[in-house]
């Protein structure tokens, strides 16, 4: 991966990891897939053997990312799912021809119809989003409590009360902000 781009934020849930390729949506947005090649990098890191991508396919991916974020946010807030986001997710899901295969090591791997078929990979991501939004997994969709992040994440904690997309980034930033604010209010006690 090229050092000129921000690191990917990888997780255990494909759909929410994909939405994480655009972070800090309500602050200084960070785009992690600014080019077709960077989308290939993300897909390869996530187990999709893709070797070619066009700008048009990158646009399809970004449209899917936005739609998943929009629909998952609505689901997390228990609001009605926006019809246009649902349509994009359904369209992408229906377009692909990826197949799940079992490796000799007992792992699931995705076989795409061709190494240049980004649409197959987007189909798998859309299908994963459908399962999350439909509530087919043990866990719940939630929004990061960081006012600049507000990323959708999948909470699998026992109590389902996780507040941060990632404690090492969003949670620590909030703790640091509280510490700094308290230090300014009480300069004598912060030493």
Distinctive features:
191 residues
Structure write-up:
By secondary structure, this protein is mainly alpha-helical. Helices cover 45% and strands 10% of the residues. It is built from six helices and six strands, in the order αββαααββαββα. The strands form three sheets. A two-stranded antiparallel sheet has the order 1-2. It has a two-stranded antiparallel ribbon with strand order 3-4. A hairpin with a 5-residue loop joins β3 (99-102) and β4 (108-111). α3 crosses α4 and α3 (55-76) packs parallel to α5 (118-133). The longest helix is centred in the middle third of the chain and has 22 residues, at 55-76. The protein is globular and about 65 Å long. The termini are far apart. The model has no long low-confidence stretch (mean pLDDT 86).
């Amino acid at each position: 991966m090229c050092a000129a781009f921000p690191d990917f934020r990888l997780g255990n849930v494909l759909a929410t990891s994909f939405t994480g390729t655009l972070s800090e949506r309500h602050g200084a947005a960070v785009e992690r897939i600014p080019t077709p090649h960077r989308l290939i990098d993300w897909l390869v890191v996530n187990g999709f053997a893709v070797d070619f991508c066009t700008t048009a396919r990158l646009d399809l991916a970004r449209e899917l990312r936005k739609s998943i974020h929009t629909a998952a946010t609505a689901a997390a807030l228990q609001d009605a799912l926006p019809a246009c986001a649902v349509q994009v997710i359904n369209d992408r899901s229906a377009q692909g021809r990826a197949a799940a295969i079992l490796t000799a090591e007992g792992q699931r791997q995705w076989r795409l119809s061709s190494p240049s078929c980004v649409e197959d990979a987007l189909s798998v991501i859309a299908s994963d989003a459908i399962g999350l939004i439909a509530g087919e997994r043990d866990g719940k969709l939630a929004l990061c409590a960081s006012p600049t992040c507000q990323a959708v994440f999948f909470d699998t904690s026992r109590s389902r009360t996780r507040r941060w997309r990632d404690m090492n980034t969003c949670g620590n930033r909030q703790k640091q902000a509280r510490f700094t604010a308290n230090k300014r209010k009480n300069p004598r006690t912060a030493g």
